[in-house]
Amino acid sequence: MYGYPNTDRISLNPLQGMNSLRSRLLLIAAAIALSVFALFPRATAVRERQPDGSFVETTKRLWPLKYGLDLQGGMHLALEIDESKGAVADKKDALNLALKTVRNRIDQFGVSEPTVQLAGDDRIIVELPGIDDQQRAQDVVQKSAFLQFQITDETNALEKSLPRMDAAVRSQRLDGAASAPTANAAKPSAAAPLSGLLTGDTTRKVAVDSGKAAGTETAARVAAADTAVKKDANGPVTKLVQPGQFPGQYFVKETDVARMTRYLADSVVRAAVAPGKVIRFDADTLVGAPGQGAYRAMYVLDSKPIITGDYLTDAKPNNNPLEGGYIVEFEFNAEGGRIFRRETGRHIRDNMAVVLDDRVMTAPTINSAIGRNGQITLGGAGLQEAQDLALVLRAGKLPVPLKVADMRSIGASLGQDSIDKGALAFGIAIALVIAIMIGYYRFSGMIACVALALYIFFTLAALAGFGATLTLPGIAGLVLGVGIAVDANVLIFERIREEMDRGKSARLSIEEGFKHALSAIVDTSVATILSGAVLYQYGTGPVRGFAVTLVVGVAASLFTAIFVTRTLLLLWLDRTGGTKPLSI
To answer: Is the confidence at residue 77, as pLDDT, over 50?
Structure first.
C-alpha cells in the first residue's frame, strides 16, 4: 500500500472514479449508437436490369457496406492509349484527361462502387462490380463520343472523284481481292438503280426545336438508271457504289462494305477524294428486297462540321412511337444554339448528317433554322442503346482513342463462393480466439471477447461510414485484425498477471498492467498503420482494399483494447469493490 501512494489515493475517491466510469460508459454507448446508425439499412438509389436489357432507376433498402468486384462479380478492364491512328505527344497528360472522361461516364453508368484509376503511367484500370455485359461495358468506356453535324455534299464530288479513286486503288494494288467475284455476293453494277431495293419501314426522322423543323429520310425508290455514275463501270470503287435518294448519299452492298473501308483507309485513295469532303458510312444496315441482300448507306460530307458536340449541355433518352422508337434528346448551350441556328439557316433544304464517332446516325432535310434543342432517332435500337448514347454524349468525348489491353469477367457465383469461404475463415478464427482466450484467461478472457465483438462491430461501421468497399483481401485484413486486437489484450493481461504475482491488489495490478503495456501496443499499432498507409498509397485494387481494412481495424483494436477492456475491468472493480480476486 505504501509503495503506491498516488494510485491508492486516486482509487479512494469514489465520486471521481464513478464520474470517470460513467463518462467511459457513455462514450462507449455513443460509439455503439453511431455504429448502429452507420450499418443500418437505408434507402439507396440503384439501377436494375429489365428483361429487355435496359436499366431503370429504383430505390431499395440496402446494407451500406458495399461488396467489391471479387465478391459480387463484374468486369475488370485495363485501357491503354491507341496509337494505331497516330502517335500521341504527351501520353501522361492525355491519359489524365481520358481518366476524367472515363470516370464521368462510369459515374453515370449507374454502377455501385466502381473503380477508375491510373495504373502506372500508361494504363487506366476500370472495375465495374455487378456488370456482366462485356460488350456494353467496353463500348461505354471506349467510345470517342465525337459528335459532329455535317452537311451532305451538293456538288457531285464523288462522281468527279471516282476516276481518280479507281486509279489510286489500282496503283496501290488494293483491288487484287476484288478481281475475283465472291460466292456470297452477285457482281455489283454501278449503273444498277436501287429501284424496289428497300422494303419495310426504314424511315428515320430528326425533330428539332420542338418540332418546328422536321426532316424525313425515307429509304424509297431512287433515281432511274440514267442518273447513275457514267464513268468506268468496272472501276474497283465505281462498281461498288450505287446512287442514293438525295445528293451526297450512296449505297454499298453490305458484303462490299469491308472492301470499300479498306480502300478508304489508304491515304492515297483518300487523297483522291475531292478537297474539303469526307466519306462516312451509316451506322445501320438497310434490308433490301428478297434476293437483293442488305445495303449500307454511304455519305459524302463537307469535312468541316457546322457544329460539334463540344457545345452540348445535356442529353437524355426518350421513347417516341411517332419517330419509330427510342430517341436521344440533346440541348446545346447558348453559344452553341446561336451557331446551330445560324448555320442551319444557311442550309435550308439541304441534308444534315448527324455523325457520331465517324458513323452517320441520321441525315434529315433541314426545313428551317434550328435552335438549341434537337433529337437523334435511333431506329430499331432499344432503351439500353439510347441510355448509353445519352451517357457518352453527356460525359463528353475522349481526348485520345483508347484500346482494351486486358478484360476479365468475374462471375457472381465465384464472388459468392469467395464470400462463403471468407466467412468460414472468419468464423473459424473467431471461434479459436474465443476458445483460447476464455480457456486461458477465464473471466478476463470473457471481457476480451466482449471487446473483440465490439472491435468487429466498430470496424464494419467505420468501413461503411467511410464508404469503403469490402473485398476478399479486405476480409483477410479483417481476420488479421482479430489477431492484432487479441494480441493487445494478451500484452495487457500478461502485465496484469505479473503485477498480481508480485502481491499487488487487483485494482493496482490493472492500473500498472495497462500503464506498462501501453507503449508496446501503441508502437506495434503505429508500425502496422504506417505499413497499411504505404500499401494504400502505392497499391491498386485489392491491395488497397486490404490496406483500408487493416488500418481501420488497427484503429478499432486500439480503442477496444485500451479503452473498452479497461472500462469493463473498472466496471467489475466498481461492482465488486475490489475485494474479489481477478480471474486471469
So the answer is: yes
Cβ(413)–Cβ(465) under 8 Å? no
Q: Is 299 helix (H, G, I), strand (E, B) or coil?
A: strand
Contact (Cβ atoms closer than 8 angstroms) between residue 474 and residue 548? yes
pTM: 0.52
Whether 55 shows a pLDDT value over 60: the answer reads: no
Surface-to-core class of residue 304, CB atoms within 10 Å of its CB (0-12 exposed, 13-18 middle, 19+ buried) = exposed
| Partners of 404 in beta bridges | 79
Question: Which set of grid coordinates corresponds to residue 226?
Answer: 440514267
CB neighbours (10 Å) of residue 359?
13
Bridge-partner residues for 402, per DSSP? 81
Task: Please name the residue that has the C-alpha cell 491510373.
Answer: 118
In the predicted structure, residue 109 carries a pLDDT above the cut 70: no
Copy the grid coordinates of residue 89: 505527344
CA dist., res. 153 & res. 273, Å (int): 12
The amino acid at 474: G
In this structure, what C-alpha cell is assigned to residue 455?
472491435
The phi, psi pair for 324, rounded to 5°, reads 95, 15
Task: Tell me phi and psi for residue 383, to 5 degrees.
Answer: -65, -40
Supply the mean pLDDT for the chain: 78
pLDDT at 218 over 60: no
Domains along the chain with CATH numbers: 5-40+412-576 (1.20.1640.10), 74-143+398-409 (3.30.70.3400), 147-384 (no CATH)
- The 8-class DSSP code of residue 560 comes to I
pLDDT of 410 above 90: no
Q: Which of 19-33, 181-195, 331-345 has the lowest mean pLDDT?
A: 181-195
Q: Quote the pLDDT of residue 413.
A: 58
pLDDT bracket for residue 505 (50, 70, 90)? confident
Question: Long-range contacts made by residues 178-181, C-beta under 8 angstroms, separation at least 24?
Answer: 178/236, 178/259
Instruction: Indicate the pLDDT class of residue 59, thresholds 50, 70 and 90.
Output: confident
Residue found under cell 476480409: 475
What is the spatial distance between Cα 226 and Cα 401, in angstroms, rounded to a whole number? Answer: 43
Is there a contact between 578 and 500 (Cβ–Cβ < 8 Å)? no
Q: What is the DSSP string of 30-98?
A: HHHHHHHHHHS-EEEEEEEE-TTS-EEEEEEEE-SSEE-HHHH-EEEEEEEE--TTS--S-HHHHHHHH
* Residues 439, 173 contacting (CB under 8 angstroms): no
Which uninterrupted H or E stretch holds 520?
helix 506-538
Residue 279, phi-psi category: left (phi > 0), alpha (psi -120 to 50), beta (remainder): beta
SS3 232: coil
Lowest mean pLDDT among 210-214, 266-270, 293-297, 506-510: 210-214
Spatial strand order of the sheet with 123-129 comes to: 115-119, 123-129, 74-81, 402-410
Residue among 18, 32, 19 nearest 573 (CA): 18
What's the 3-state SS for 417-477? HHHHHHHHHHHHHHHHHHHHHHHHHCHHHHHHHHHHHHHHHHHHHHHHHCCCEECHHHHHH
